[in-house]
Amino acid sequence: MFILIFPLILPFIFLSFNSINDLYSMNFYEFIFSFNFQILFAFDILLFALCPILFNYALRRWLFMLRKLNLIMLFVTMPVAIYMNYLYAPTEKIMGDVQRLFYFHMGYVLVFTLAFCVNLYYSVRFLITNNINYSTKAYLHAEIGVLFTFLTIVSGMFWAKPVWGTWWTWDPQLTTTFILLVLYGSYLVFHSYSIKFNVPKYAAIFAIISFIDLPIVYISVRVMRGISPVVFGGEGGGISPQMMDTLLLTLAAFFFLYLVLVDMRLRLDKT
Asked: Full-prediction pTM beyond 0.90?
């Protein structure tokens, strides 16, 4: 289990040893959109994309053993994360209580990131082996990814309205996230038709092309310099240890949620 979650906690371990002083002096959103955080989170994505054997081994060999453990961990961490979000984490000085949406917003981001990385892996495996089971698994992970990308956008809209004064703006990060939703939503439709006409390899190729937008979502916030860095990087209270604890536990809860959803979807597909 430690091997499975190690890639997720590696960026935070790295930050704790290299940026501990800056961590608590930064504004909450300055930290989220800081260069170190995004580079390390990009490393997280790269690790899952380039080391899928580890993840695949966990799913194939440990799934039965982890099923009950994942459920237990989900039912333990999620209520605690909700409690910490509303009763433990302090109110952000600039945005107030609306900032609390961001903890779950980041959880949604984590889930769709993992889902699309695993989709990429199975799409590549399908092209190499021509094993239709890999195509099916790629599709199942894309379903989860599309759902949580949609939740990311919706939660971001509810968060943006009181902060930006509008439900939507064509900010580079928002736009690239919307494109991500359209791409993988199209992939789901394309995959269904490709199976019907017995040409699933084209859907796999489309999935690989669609994945290109995922790192762009993370890069856009710094390179394209849209509205997000201005709003989230403003002066205000620094990030507190309580906020960091809440964020990390929320990410852990959504990680277990992702594992449980994958297990349920795989079992449903076998029935």
From this structure: no
